[in-house]
Amino acid sequence: MVKVITIDGPAGAGKSTVAKAVAERLKFSYLDTGAMYRALTLKAMQNQVDLEDESQLVDLAGKTRIDLEYTSGGVKVLLDGQDVSQDIRSIDVTNNTFYIARAPRVRELMVKWQQAIGAEKSIVTEGRDQGTVVFPQAAYKFYLDADVQERCKRRIEELQAAGKDVDAKKLTEELKQRDQNDLTRSAGPLKKADDACFIDSTYLSVDDVVEKIIAYL
Ligand code: DC
């Protein structure tokens, strides 16, 4: 029987790194649902689709294929067969994803795609609505959070390590805006499932969080 483990939480809480590590330990697949929202945002931007027009976004989603391939180096994201793994991490895509994320009919499609993946193999999936909307019957659920200043610090360090110039003040504002967008949208908002285990990672390393999750499981 396939099993689903969900990890939800805000941007920068460490979900991806933790989810990947837990999946590896359990020999489960890892599902990065944010990458799906990002890939569709990229396609909408490339095709100059009006991001405020939900019908156009639904139409576009219906003509889109997103595949996630997991390699030891991370996740390879294929948008209609093209590798867009790097492009979907751009600041423009990051800041525009909320248009796709707030569109209820686009979310419905995303939810179906994600449920189809979770139906065929055991996964550790991370996002905002995995424990609440997509997999309410998941075997185990976690909600990973951290203080906003700590989340910003981690993002800044991550970007600097990748050799990118960072405007710390701007990044902090953008992250707070993303929190606000994630928490307040009516469809699939960021929310801890009632039966999710809450982990505050502010003072924990990635390994600490992974060990906590494994111990809980
Ligand atoms: O986790 P991430 O930063 O890659 O997510 C990118 C965006 O996608 C983020 O702004 C919120 C949205 N998202 C969502 O609405 N629901 C999900 N399950 C995952 C991500």
Give your account of this protein's structure.
The protein is α/β, with parallel strands linked by helices and 217 residues long. The protein has one domain (4-211): 3-Layer(aba) Sandwich (Rossmann fold), CATH 3.40.50. Helix content is 51%, strand content 18%. The protein is built from 9 helices and 8 strands. The strands form 2 sheets. The protein has a 5-stranded parallel sheet with strand order 2-6-1-7-8, with helices on both faces. A hairpin with a 2-residue loop joins β4 and β5 (82-83). α2 crosses α4 (91-101) and α7 packs across α8 (168-184). The model has no long low-confidence stretch (mean pLDDT 95). Bound molecules: 2'-deoxycytidine-5'-monophosphate.
Features:
alpha/beta; Rossmann fold; 5-stranded parallel beta sheet; 9 helices; 8 strands; globular
Task: Kindly summarize this structure in a few lines.
The chain is an alpha/beta fold and 217 residues long. It has helices at residues 15-26, 33-46, 54-62, 91-101, 104-120, 130-134, 148-161, 168-184, 206-216; strands at 4-8, 29-32, 66-71, 74-79, 82-83, 123-127, 140-145, 197-200. The protein contains 9 helices and 8 strands.
Query: Helicity, in percent?
Result: 40-55%
Poorly predicted regions: none
User: Largest sheet, if any?
Assistant: 5 strands, parallel
- Overall CATH class: Alpha Beta
Order of helices and strands: EHEHHEEEHHEHEHHEH
- Reading side by side through the largest sheet, how are the strands ordered? 2-6-1-7-8
What is the second-level CATH architecture?
Answer: 3-Layer(aba) Sandwich
Bound molecules: 2'-deoxycytidine-5'-monophosphate
Helix/strand class: alpha/beta
Counting structural domains, the number is: 1
Broad shape: globular
CATH topology: Rossmann fold
